[in-house]
Amino acid sequence: MRSITLSPVVLALTLTLAGCSSVSMSPERELAPAGAAPADPASSPVATRLPFEPSNAPFAVEVASTADVLVADRCEVDGAQAALCGERGVQHDVITQTDGSAIGIFRMRSLTVRPNARVILRGDMPVVLVASGDVRIDGIVDAAADGDDGFAGGWSGSRTRTGSMRVDDRGRGPGAGSGPEPASRSGAGGGSFCGLGGGTGGAIAYGSGALVPLVGGSSGGGGFSPGGAGGGAVEIVSGRTLTIGAEGIVHAGGGASMFGGGAGGAGGAILLEAASVVVRGVVAANGAGGSGNADWGDILQRAGQPGLTGAAQARGGVGPNPGGRGSGGAVTDGESGLFEQVIPGSIGPYAGGGGGGAGRIRIATLSGSASVTGVVSPSRGTPCTTVGVVKGGDPRAQAGRDDPSLK
């Protein structure tokens, strides 16, 4: 057998390679068990840290996603579902708030909503959209109710019926409107949130100006149709500049009742947080008008208007016993419906439904100021719209700037 002589260099290399079996390599990353919380994005080398801590989602201060979300058409977003307008790479989480309710959170690098595009919030959960970079909205972000259907944290109208008899005519939510009171001929009460619903007594305001936790509006009381639903709740966060363009709209209006003296729903909640905020378009969380109460004819004429995308008050349904107007602009409470006459064949001897109260709007920036040349409703100067400093912003700006006026 022929012997082989190794050179000193080859021998050294051979011994080194052989020793690799005893070298401890970096361990593989352990897979999280099913149902476990997602990995902390701060451990990712691509994570970007926001210059402040977002309300309702403090862990979202770290954004690992590099998705640039561009919405050019119509898309629906459900806080419980991971999909965001067909874009891949968006981080999605569902967390429980301090009040026990759940919210859906989406994290991305940037968000652009093109003109004529519409992001429609669906499902039951309030939605939080977080971008480490810029957010620009030239289309519509829609968290509004649709009739007696509430979405994104807005409370739906009561639908419990037995034949044509009212069984459960009270609305839903902490500020739910009451049903009509035929003995006093009072109409159903509008839903409340920051502003009070018009109509029967017992309306209460709830929630906080800071919108923590993030909750939606309450529904109005039902007549012979369900009360309108409350507007939903949406939080939009930008680590840089959040711009609502001249044609842009962020809308969380209450839903309208169709007929029979049902009341309008309250406006919902809109929370805008960014390093800087520019509003040239519309930010609105208005209550809906109540439906009129008369005969069965002209049902469409008896419907109230939903909460409007502007500062005007939604009108109540017309008729001999008209519904009350919803909130709008500087008017934060809904109006009561009117009882003017008994009509043969009328649905009930009571007034039209009351209008829904105003929702809540909050704008917070690093400096405690915002550039607002567009429409904000409820209006600046009311307790239902506040401006302040984001958590981690300028502490000198916090004192004296967290007030109802946007300056």
Largest sheet: 11 strands, mixed
Oligomeric description of these chains: single chain
What overall geometry do the principal axes of the alpha carbons give? Answer: elongated
Helix fraction, binned, reads: under 10%
- How much strand content do the residues show? 15-25%
Q: Provide mean pLDDT, rounded.
A: 83
SS content category = mainly beta
Number of domains: 1
Total beta strand runs: 21
Tally of contiguous helical segments: 3
Instruction: Spell out the helices and strands N to C.
Output: HEEEEEEEEEEEEEEEEEHEEEEH
Radius of gyration: 27 Å
Uncertain residue segments = 1-45, 161-167, 399-407
Distance between the ends: 95 Å
How are the SSEs placed, and which strands pair?
Layout: H1 8-18, E1 48-49, E2 62-63, E3 68-71, E4 74-78, E5 91-96, E6 102-108, E7 110-113, E8 118-122, E9 127-131, E10 135-137, E11 140-142, E12 161-162, E13 165-166, E14 233-244, E15 249-251, E16 269-279, E17 282-284, H2 299-302, E18 360-365, E19 371-372, E20 375-377, E21 385-389, H3 395-398
How does this model look, in words?
- The chain has 407 residues and is mainly beta.
- The protein has one domain (46-399).
- Helix content is 5%, strand content 23%.
- It has helices at residues 8-18, 299-302, 395-398; strands spanning 48-49, 62-63, 68-71, 74-78, 91-96, 102-108, 110-113, 118-122, 127-131, 135-137, 140-142, 161-162, 165-166, 233-244, 249-251, 269-279, 282-284, 360-365, 371-372, 375-377, 385-389.
- The strands form 4 sheets. Strands 3, 5, 6, 7, 9, 10, 14, 16, 18, 19 and 21 form an 11-stranded mixed β-sheet that branches. A 6-stranded parallel β-sheet has the order 4-8-11-15-17-20, with no helix packed on it.
- Strand 5 (91-96) and strand 6 form a beta hairpin.
- The radius of gyration is 27 Å and the shape is elongated.
